[in-house]
Amino acid sequence: MKRLLVITTICMVMVAFSLPAMGAKDIVVGFPMYLSGGGAVFGKPSAEGAKMLVKEVNDSGGVLGRKIKLLVRDCKNSPDEATRVAKEMINKNNIDFLVGGLTSSQGLALSEVAKQEQILYIAPISKVAGMTEPPRLHKYVFRSAANSKTEGRSGAVLAAKNKKWKRWATIGPDYSYGHSVTAAFIPWLKKLRPDVEIVHQAWPKLGESDYMPFINVVMASKPDAVFGSLWGGHFINFAKQASPLGFFKKIGFVSAGEAGCLEAVKGAGDDMPAGIISNTYDTFYYPDTPWHKAWVKQCQAFTGEKYPSSWLGTGYDAMKFLTEAIKKAGTTDTDAVIKALEGLTINSSVGKLKMRAKDHQAARGQYWGTLTKVPEYPFLILKPVEYIDAEKLME
Amino acid sequence: MILQVKNLVKSFDGFMAIAGVNFTVKKGELCAIIGPNGAGKTTLFNLITGHLSMDKGQIVFNDIDISRLNAHKVCRLGLGRSFQRINIFSRLTVFENIQAAVLTHRGKSFNFFTPVQPLFQEETHEILERVGLQEHQDEVSGSLAYGFQKQLELGIALAMEPKMLLLDEPTAGMSAQETRATIELIGEIVKEKGLTLLFTEHDMSVVFSISERIMVLHQGKLIASGPPDEVRANPEVQKVYMGESR
Amino acid sequence: MSRQNWVLIAVLVLLALVPLTGSRYYVFLLTDVLIFGLFAVSLNLLLGYTGLVSFGQAAYFGIGAYAYALLIKKAGLTFGVAFALTGLSGAAAALIIGFFCVRLTKIYFAMLTLAFSQIVWAIIFKWNSLTGGDTGIYGIDFPEFIGSKTKFYYFTLIVVVVSVFLLRRIVNSPFGRILTTIRDNPERTESIGINVKLFQLLAFIVSGFFSAISGGLFAIFNHSIFPDFCYWPISAEVLIMTLLGGMYSFFGPMVGAGVLLYLRLEVTSYTQYWPFILGSILVLLLFFFPGGIVGFFQDQIKKWRPSK
Amino acid sequence: MNFDFSFVAIQFLYGLTNAMFIFLIASGLSIIFGVLGVLNFAHGSLYMLGAYTTYQCVSFFVDSPGYFWWAVIVASVTVALLGGIIERLLLRRLYQHEQINQLLFTYALVLILSDVARFIWGVDQLSVSRPAVLKGAVEIFGQYFPKYNIFIIFLGPSIAFLFWFFMLRTRSGRMIRAAALDRETLGSLGVNVDRLFTVVFVIGSWLAALGGALVSPVVTIRPGMDVEIIINAFIVVVIGGLGSFWGTFLAALMVGTVYSMGILVFPRLSMIFIYVIMVLVLIIRPWGLLGRPLQR
Questions:
Q1: Minimum-distance CB partner of D10 among A36, A38, A216
Q2: pTM of the model as a whole
Q3: What is the pLDDT of residue A14?
Q4: Between the CA of residue A137 and those of A131, A132, B37, what are the distances in Å?
Q5: What is the pLDDT of residue D3?
Q6: Is C1 among the domain residues?
Q7: End-to-end CA distance of chain B
């Protein structure tokens, strides 16, 4: 009897909670993000970055006199979860806009939700090129991240600089991102350097914990250099296992997938190989300009960390595109905001950033450089580092 | 001859459980199999009813070779069975237990959409009455008293309208009073329906009171067979069985 | 008509009226609940009625979803044909997989069902050209005649009600009664002349059929499908729904699906530690309410009315 | 591509290393199933906790000599004790329940422990350095092969052998084997079955945690590693035969080497090979390579 009473009470409380909050005039943005599991190390700072922008905007009076309300939800590592969470937020929380998703398949999944539900979606991280290309391109999807095509091609630009690297191998996770970035890299490299050949392609599954057999096969094919697209923890795992073999000493390595980001260099510790060429979304130590310094300060203040994650920029930029577009449109009407977004240029974490009207893809380049040990930092940084502009690499 | 067992052999991991057993049972006969614990009685039953597959030998029931048949086929030929440990459908009611057996016996088990409840009410009640459980028909069988569960098990066996009954220790775990009542019930039913009975039993007074013939199993072999008095007088039986006195 | 049937009709009428409230939240939630409810009830034909712990039921859900999507998008079939074949695809897969599984018992059975579902998942994941690999199949639109969320809700309601009605007829049929005897005591069932393995296989096929139907419905509801539909956490989730509601009552799994989906929707709004909460609910359930929600209320009712 | 013999041999050795890790995890899973009859989904969680605790201990002990080994010992024992507590306080009460309840309880543990780890250690990728003596690589067949991997290749069989010795030659070992064969009889012989179950669960948990501790220098320690490993461990245990110790060893060797050699032949389909082996085993010998068929 007592138990019955307890259960009834619990039920009533729950029903009370579920009554939709009425009267909110906030602009509600749904932000599904990979927050539990292996990719959470990037999902978390990305969500932080979005929150930082929201705080910045709300502190200065909001947009159109309305506050932004950001709903961050965990969507684990699967596109299935991302779809479900997004649909829940659309139907339950009546979100006005959708931003988020981490893996490429999540980006594609959320893009599909946006199309079906006719809600504006901005992808802050997912890179798979196909998302902003026909047939999957549609009017509701935008991407503030770089795409795999520009990433792969910019990698090729750096790779082509070393004339000694003729025999190439690739290693990438066996899923959409790995395939698409590698597919962008190879033809561009061959275009720049017709004399190179691809001697082996390794495709470990996403989340592989044992790269040793793959490393061995790659080494057996005797390449001069390897193009990798293992990101985040996957790269750390790979590096930890490859380092003892002298892999990075013998073979050049060009790594897409933000292997040069702070999380990776800190996570790998001793095993992070110096001398490899890699990229990152942005950095807190470069460029040395006043606006970038101010931005880093903002990040430091917001996170309370001395070396803030470079991934803050992903969530920040996507949200900035959205809020700027709403400002420009003067309304939250989806069609009007879409119009406003097309061709919009914002002041992003990497400087001026333009959302192309043609394919809803931000013309975003990448910081590339060589991982180097410097006395100022307790970890490797990209030095020299350059920002490779995307416009030249995009169609 | 309703049952013929020829040269039956079964071993588990090299242990000879049944080492060449031969016997026959006549129609209408009341036979007991006795033997010390571990003599192979239950294994023998399991071999006959197809719950275990034999290594060698042949079993003929009612002129049909059942040596290689599965348990469910054997039982359809009219060989009813009860088990040493309680073996009923414990989450179902008493009525449903019996009714399930009636259903399969009447070939209705492949019916997917007819409501089951009204089927074979009469037949089921008849059996419930016969085993004295009509009072308890709506109780969940798993919560019945032990003796009732044993009766229910008998009822399930009877619902199949068998020609022959194999009862494995039908009074195991019963009080003296329950034992007597159960034995009387079995005796009555067997006579009334003209059944053949083959049973195992540890209670010697029960064995000698109703059996017409007794077979003694020891270490997987039959060492004696005959009317109760003859078996009782057999010196070898006395040595291996009675001598153990338990 | 019995009291239970009156209650069911009342619930049905209420469900039919929900879209009139104009709340897209409830329509969304209930569509989801109905689909997973059907999935859980079809699993429970194995779990609660036949005593078979299938730990790979997601396979048939996923096969249903992919079969529907492929038949519509690649084979270009009309909706009616594709939807009918969806159920059959699940039944066919269950026939093949079940043939091997029913030879085993208990935990071995559970392991084998799990193994097969992982294989189904791996095939779908790796067969890029057909299934789209990790990115799945997208753009599965509502069929024309149910071209809105409300219409799809009614469509789902009808399909689920018909399916559940059929399943209920099956569990109350002689066949269903035999399944319960197998659950309680497979050995004894054999001794009343039943080919136990055959009956288990039949139950497996029926369950696979309706699981695939729910998968097909979910494919339309979700508009895109992913290999994760076949992945083992989905199997675990539907098992939890079933136990939460109560595996020994016919509608228990439906209730479990409703409670779990609703809870998840609410809890995830407040915290990202939903797995922790789900785990704790599960532990409480196992230790204090082993009969599930419906089982618990049935017990309470029995206590108030000791004998009938 | 043409492969030298040396590369194939090295590839095989990598397969062996992986096999030994899987073996450590799977053997614990297998012995718990063999004796307690519980299929422990949370085994992967104990492995993950082993890795996290090792990380924690390494940061505590980092200044003392041989800190890595102390960390491994302290971490694995701590997690083993946690396993014991879980068995004593919770799992024990479910032995009388249906098997599905035990299965779901261990699944609930997976959910709870993953969030507890996330709560304590966050979502960052953590890493532990290899112990000083095992840094670097040695030359085998003209190729470099990491010292740490050699250590693991030798450690696996040693543990298998010690275990085998324990099971065959000691009284406790004989009791465990007897318990795996027939629980009821053992109880009637006056053995304290309750305590035996706890001991077995602790041993199993220890093996899982040891796996986690030893793997920590090779991979990143991160959320999600629990679920990744448990699937592989299940596959191995199924192929080898539930509850069969040597079966687990054999299956781990098979899975580890087939996977790494498969990469040489069909780089993308290596995982499928493993599943195919599993299906074949299940169809031909459902009780596994060295398991015993179930009577009834």
A1: A216
A2: 0.90
A3: 59
A4: 6, 5, 78
A5: 65
A6: no
A7: 34
Locus of tokens 């004796």: D35
Residue stretches of chain A with pLDDT short of 50: 20-24
Query: ipTM strictly over 0.95?
Result: no
**Any idea which fold A149-280+367-393 has?**
Rossmann fold (3.40.50)
Residues of C whose CB is below 8 A from B105 = 192-193
State how far the Cα of C150 lies from the Cα of B62, in Å rounded to an integer.
65
The average pLDDT across D104-133 equals 89
CB contact under 8 A, D238 and C103: no
Q: Which of D51, D17, D22, D224 is nearest to A215 (CA)?
A: D17
Tokens at residue B50, please?
A: 């197809």
pLDDT for the residue D189: 67
Distances in whole angstroms, Cα of residue A94 to Cα of each of A26, A117, A135, A325, C267: 11, 11, 28, 20, 17
Candidate from C177, C184, C193 with C-beta closest to B72? C193
Tell me the domain boundaries of chain A.
27-146+292-364, 149-280+367-393
Q: What is the pLDDT of residue B218?
A: 86
Domain range for C164? 25-303
Taking only residues 73 to 112 of chain C, the set having a beta carbon closer than 8 angstroms to any beta carbon of chain B reads: none
The token pair at D146 is 């990491």
The tally of domains found in chain C comes to 1
Instruction: Look at residue A63 in the predicted model and tell me its pLDDT.
Output: 92
Among B111, B112, B123, B163, the residue to mutate for chain C (most C Cβ within 10 A): B112
Do domains A27-146+292-364 and A149-280+367-393 share one topology? The answer is yes
State whether residue B26 sits within 8 Å of chain C by CB. no
Confidence check: pLDDT of C82 > 70: yes
- Check if CATH label 3.60.15.10 holds for domain A27-146+292-364: no
pLDDT band at B245 (very low <50, low <70, confident <90, very high): very low
How far are the Cα atoms of A368, A390, D211 from residue A394, in angstroms, in the given order? 17, 6, 47
The answer to whether C and B touch (≥3 CB pairs < 8 Å) is yes
What integer is the mean pLDDT of D73-101? 91
* pLDDT value, residue A234: 87
In a domain, C73, yes or no: yes
Q: Do C194 and B109 touch (CB under 8 A)?
A: yes
What pLDDT does residue C308 have?
44
Q: Do C107 and D33 touch (CB under 8 A)?
A: yes
Task: Please answer yes or no on whether C184 and B88 come within 8 Å at the CB atom.
Answer: yes
* Chains with 3 or more CB pairs under 8 A to chain D: A, C
Task: Over range C192-201, report the average pLDDT.
Answer: 92
Query: Which is nearest to C37 in space by CA: C159, C130, C206?
Result: C159
Q: Find the CATH number of the domain harbouring C225.
A: 1.10.3470
C23 Cβ contact partners less than 8 Å away, ≥ 6 residues apart: none
**Nearest CB to D123 within list A44, A202, A245:** A44
List of chain C residues whose C-beta atoms are within 8 Å of the C-beta of residue D104: 236, 239-240, 243, 282, 286
φ/ψ (deg, to 5) at A107: -60, -45
pLDDT interval class at B246 (50, 70, 90): very low
Q: Which one of A80, A110, A115 would you mutate to disrupt binding with C, by most C Cβ within 10 Å of its Cβ?
A: A80
- Alpha-carbon distance C277 to nearest alpha carbon in chain A (angstroms): 14
Q: What's the confidence (pLDDT) of residue A7? A: 62
Q: Has residue C4 been placed in a domain?
A: no
Looking at the complex, does the CB of residue B118 fall below 8 Å from at least one CB of chain C? no
Contact list, C175 vs chain B (CB under 8 Å): 109-112
**Is C6 contained in some domain?**
no
SS (HEC) of A173-240: CCCHHHHHHHHHHHHHHHHHCCCCEEEEEECCCCCCCCCHHHHHHHHHCCCCEEEECCCHHHHHHHHH
> 3-state DSSP call for residue C242?
helix
Give the pLDDT score at A371. 92
Tell if the CB–CB gap between C136 and A175 is shorter than 8 Å: no
